[in-house]
Each structure stands twice: as structure tokens, then as C-alpha cells.
Amino acid sequence: MGKQQTDWLKRAADRLKGLFRPFFNMFFDRPIEENLREFWAERHVVVWLAALAAGIIAAYGTIAFRLAIAGVQFLWIGTGREAITSLLYETPWWQVMAGPVAAGLLVGLVIDFWLPGKRPRGVAQVIEAAHLNSGRMPFREGLVSAGLAAVSLGAGASAGREGPAVHLGATLTSKIATYLKLPPDMSRVLLASGVAAAVSASFNAPLAGVLFAHEVILAHYALRAFVPTTIASVVGTAIVRFHIGDQPAFSLPDYVIMSYWEFPAFALLGVVCAVVAISFMMSSFVADHIVGKIRIPLWMKPAIGGLLIGAIGLLFPEVLGVGYEATDNALKQNYGLWLLIALVAAKIIATAITLAARFGGGVFSPSLYLGAMAGGAFGIVAASISPGLASEHGVYAIVGMGAVAAAVLGAPLSSTIMVFELIGTYEVAVALLLANSISTALTQAVIGKSFFHWQLEQRHLHLHEGPHRRVLLSLHVRDLMTWYDTPRPQPDLEEDSESPRPPRLVPGDNLGKALGLMESRELSIYPVSHPDDSGMIVGEITEKRALRAFNDALIMATREEHH
User: How many CB atoms lie within 10 A of CB 12?
Assistant: First the structure.
């Protein structure tokens, strides 16, 4: 193309821009070119493509994890099928016991001598990574945790497979963010995308995957994160449906609600499910405390826990493993009242022991299990009181399944959608929403947090209190202090020489501790000590700079959560 033609095209483009610019300026507060430049500078397209890769990787990671569980299960009882309850009734007692004990011994040795933190990782650690570690997760620890969970669940430990799958998906996705050198906000979005893909692949539930990533991991619904999480979730679902099938997890009869007069009963069921959720969470808290106080080597605790789990499994094989067959039986009305009640109690005890003994596994599936059993039992009682008005107790089992999960996970929206997608029907939508909201509200009123945030609080990470808490924990003194060229002797902060030595502040401390010390001692400048407690200081931090950093970080957090 000649120079004259090129010049003519440039002039024509300029004329078009000049012609349409007044029109756009009428409706937009800044030029479109500026919007496009910002869009490109923030690397949205890169994140979208990375989310596509995250969906693929997380989906295949989830499939591999399920195959690993099936492989261990085959070694235990000779089958890789999810439906194992009927088979366990015919399995010799010593074989039922051997699985959890052997798995416990292996898990104990690995976590005691090889795994940092001395506990397999789960959803709580993904939340921590999103809020405090810029979306980065340790790769080796993630793979080891997934392996331990596969061994645990395949050998009969009473827990869920979805939590470990979420952690595995997040771990694999975090590796992509590290490779691409994404900034913290984009890394968090990509981490959530991996979670969305893992949830959708685990449950064959793409909508639930997206909502769970926003509701639990990110704790916001910013539009900038919606597209990547949706891409990853859809891709993850497509891959799983291609390899495994697109049938819902539970195939149920066409249940319908008999009458709108039942809604007070569904509200009461929400209260009952809150009691079940609180009992489940409190049992886990107490069991974890007791196991922590027992003075025996750590590597022995999972094996002893496996012995107890196996003993419970001899009486109630329904509690062993993921428990999907038992949940399906409850939804199909195959259990009577007293068996349903007994299975609620047995599952609470078995899962509390499983988690406290440090087996790998999550609380997704146990929550669904408990809800189905409690809801089914409630439905039988409701039908006996008002036979003409009450729906089939399978309806109540469906509603209960969602209500307990919503309360335990602290995720009423994603739990609602998850149940819809698991059962393949929306007939009980209103009842499910009612029960979910009541159970979640009551559980929050009593416990004050979800199960995942309780796990974080055991390590003094109070992330459910809002973005200001996250900022105080994620910013560190080393990034805000003024470093001295050479260390100096520790000065006296008090005029009275007999006063006790003031609390130390070291470079690795967080901003929350620094501001707390400066406020308590009414100081605008605080010395930063050498980490080895040598009595030397390596720098200082000012209150002005600390507050400015806190304010700037809050602004950035607000922008990230609302953009």
C-alpha cells in the first residue's frame, strides 16, 4: 500500500473518530480508547486464557483424584464403585477394620515426618491463600495432601472428596499464576477459577462452582472475576461430562410439594438443620481439641482414629467413605425413621474422629449426608402428624441436604444451586431457599462463622471479619519500615529504667501488630528488632506510614471487590 493510500486511511479514521466522539461523550464519562487501554493493561485477556487452562487442569486433576480414591478402595474391598454400603455388609469384619487402620498408619507417618503443618490441606488453606498469600499456594504440599486424602477416603475414612479436590484444583491453578507472574489481584481471580472448575467437576454443577468460588473463596461478586470463574467452571464441567457423563449425582423420582401450607414445616426444618449443623461443627471442634491434648506420637493418632472409625463402620457401614450411596438411599426413601436418626449420630461421630485424627478429607459430602438423613427423618414425622398435607419425606430429605450444607459451609447461595444441580430438578426451590436461609442464620448466630473460618481461627486468622482484617494480616512490617544501614542497640522506650522491656516488633510481624503496639504505647515511631532477639534493632516504622499503607490497601481491596 502506497504512502498516499496510507495517509488517506489515517485521515478517514480520524474523521470517523471525530464524527462519533461527541456521540460517545454524551454517554460515557471517559474516552473509549482509555477504557480499552486500561482493559489491556490489566491483562484481562491473559487471565481469561489462563482460566481456560485452569479449567482443563483442575478438571483432569479432579478426575485423577477420583480415580486414585477408586484405586485405593479396590485394594481395600475389591471394587472402585462409589456404591459400597451393600458390599460392606458382606465384607469380613477384619477387612472392614483393616482399611481405616492401615490408611491411618500411612497418613500418620507422612504428616508427622514429611508434611509441614502436620495436617492435610483443604478449603480453609485455599481461603488463606486468596486473602493473605496473594493467591499463591505451596505446590508440593498440595500434591501430598491430595494423595493423603485419596488414601484416606479410599480406605473408608468418613469425610468428603470435594474439599481435597478444591484444594488440588487451587494448587494446580496457583502454579499457572506463578508462571505468568500475575499481580496479586489477578492471582486471586485465577485461584478462584481453579476452585470453580474443581467444584463443577466434582458435582457436575457449573453454576454451583461459580457461586462457591465467589461466595466462599473470594467473598465478593466482582464482575472482573465472574468471567474467568465462569470460563473455568464451564470447561471443567464439559470435560467431566465428556469422560464420566452428564447425569446428576442423584437420580430421584419427580417429587413435588403438596401444599403451600407446608412452608411453616420447611421453616421448622431449617431450625432442625441448624441444630444438626451446629452439632456437627461442635463435635468436630471438641474432637479436635481432645485429640490435640492426647500425649501420644502424632503418627499414631490417625491409626487409632482409623480403629474407631472401623468399629463404627461395623455397626453402620453407611458412614464409611464419601457416603453417596447412603445419601441416595435417604433421598429415595429407603430408610426408616430410627435408622435415619441413628445414621445422623453415627456420621457426626465418625466424621469428627476422621477430621480430628488428621485424615485427609472435607465436609461437603458429610454435610449433604447429614442433611438428607435429618430431612428424611423430619419428613416422616411431619407425614405422621399431617398425612394429608405433608409431601413425601424424600422432599424433606432434599431440602435438608441443602440446609445443613449451607450452614456448615457458610454458603447458602451456592449450596442452594448445588442441590438443584445434584438432583436435576427445581421443584423444591422456594422451600430450599427458605430452609437454607434459616439454618445458615441460626448457625451463624450460635457459632459465628463457617467451618472453614473456624479452621482458620485455630491459627489466629480471623478472615471472616472483613477486608480490613485481611489487610492487617497481609501487610508486613518489613515492607513498610525504614531499614538502618547497620543495626543499633535497643533504646529504652520508657523514661523509667525500671520499666519492663517493651514488646518486640520484628520485620516478619504484620501491620495489625505494629499498629496495636504503637497505639497501646502511644508512640508514633516504633523500633523494629532483629529477629534473633539480640537486643539490636534493624530499623523503625512510623505510625503515619503504617496508616497510609493501611488506607491505600483498603482502597485497593474495595476497588477489587466492586470493579
Answer: 10
State residue 342's pLDDT score.
96
Q: Note the pLDDT of residue 245.
A: 80
Q: Sign (positive/negative) of CA torsion 399, 401, 402, 405?
A: positive
**Does residue 49 register a pLDDT over 70?**
yes
The secondary structure of 267-301 as a DSSP string is HHHHHHHHHHHHHHHHHHHHHHHHHHH--S-GGGH
Distance CA 317, CA 304 (A): 18
Which among 473, 515, 531 has a CA at the least distance from the CA of 127? 473
Distance of CA 149 to the CA centre of its chain: 15
pLDDT at 338 over 60: yes
- Residue in the block written with cell 447429614: 370
In this structure, what are the phi and psi dihedrals at residue 482, rounded to the nearest 5 degrees? -100, 120
Whole-Å CA distances, 375 to 45, 119, 398, 430:
45, 32, 7, 16
The dihedrals phi and psi of 197, each to the nearest 5 degrees, come to -65, -40
* Contact (CB, 8 A) for 166 and 362: yes
Q: What is the DSSP track for 69-129?
A: HHHHHHHHHS---S--HHHHTTS-HHHHHHHHHHHHHHHHHHHHHT-GGGS---HHHHHHH
**Cβ atoms 372, 333 nearer than 8 A:** no
Could you identify the residue written with the cell 481435597? 164
pTM: 0.85
Residue 335 backbone zone (phi > 0: left; psi -120 to 50: alpha; other: beta): beta
Phi, psi for 115 (deg, rounded to 5): -95, 120
CA separation for the pair 169, 60 (Å, rounded)? 9
Q: Are 415 and 402 in contact (CB under 8 A)?
A: yes
Q: Which domains does the chain have, with CATH numbers?
A: 44-243 (1.10.3080.10), 260-457 (1.10.3080.10), 466-562 (3.90.1280.20)
Residues 6+ apart with CB under 8 A from 95: 76, 77
Element (H, E) at 542: strand 536-542
Taking the C-alpha atoms of residue 204 and residue 200, their distance in angstroms, rounded to an integer, is 5
- Average pLDDT value for the chain: 86
Q: Is the dihedral of CA 289, 295, 298, 302 positive or negative?
A: negative
